[in-house]
# Entry
Amino acid sequence: MTSEEFTLYRKKLEKTQKSLSKLLGVSLKAVQSYEQGWRAVPLHIERKLLFLVVNQRRDDTSKRKECWTLKKCNCKKECPAWEFQAGHLCWFLNGTLCECTSGQEGKDKMEICRHCEVLTSLL
# Structure
């Protein structure tokens, strides 16, 4: 995640740097450093921030697209996204069975998910 994206999502949440730091469980200095590009945004902070953005209260929940529908998935029953009925959060869950991320975890999975229609349609 770039510093510009981090700042954009903070503003989308309508949070100050201080209030976002509390939500993310990091120091104010860390948030300032992410926004200035002095520090790279760690994966666990990126995922928390995206989770907050995706799950903020909105009137329009029609943007949510289930991964199994978009990807025409054949292995729903074994996938954690299906098990927890969290098809719009497949990018957040480890162990999902999407053919594009199967076997991928952590940074490698997020690199793929950042460009996936499931996540991008929510942001």
Q: What stands out?
A: The longest helix spans residues 43-55.
